[in-house]
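Data deposition worksheet. Section B asks for the primary sequence of the deposited chain exactly as it was used as input, without tags or linkers unless they were present during the calculation. Section C holds the resulting structure in token form. Section D is free text for depositor observations; keep each observation to a single sentence. Incomplete worksheets are returned to the depositor.
Section A, Depositor: J.P.
Section B:
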Amino acid sequence: MNKAELAKAVYNSAYITGEFLLRSGKISNEYFDKYQFEADPTLLNEIAEQMAVIVGDDFDYLGALEMGGIPIATALAMKLNKKIVFVRKHAKEYGTSKLAEGPDIQGKKILIIEDVVTSGGQIILSVDELRSLGAIIDTAMCVIDRESGGSEALSENGILLKPLFTMSYIKSQIQD
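Section C:
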């Protein structure tokens, strides 16, 4: 599947219209139900294949943000043979009580993986916490950048966003 075909497949599996409250607090009349493409093994594999081509190798671990980044990072880790740090939104009060589960992140370069980026808010929060634990982070990758200010907000926080798709690219492929 080439990039244009994958964009169409992601759109057809996950794009819905209505009124949706986004994590950013904004209301949108369109939404990508990301769990539809994340739950489809064929699409998830294709997404990981194409992300693997873009991602490079200048990092130690993938950082999978709870919850949508986890299936994507897992599929990508299998393609790249890289370990994953599972990043919770909040550390649990039981078990290991860690924010970042998996290998030790002190002094390690982590590539953050997210599904859909709107404002970039969750990435910024998670990166701030991971940096306070000694992680080195300068790049995040997502499946879809909604082009709603997230890339700019991340840049202001020293994070380059590498999207597999932008919203405008997906829409341009649907119109073809």
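Section D:
The chain has seven helices and eight strands.
Helices lie at 3-14, 34-38, 41-55, 69-80, 121-132, 150-156, 167-175.
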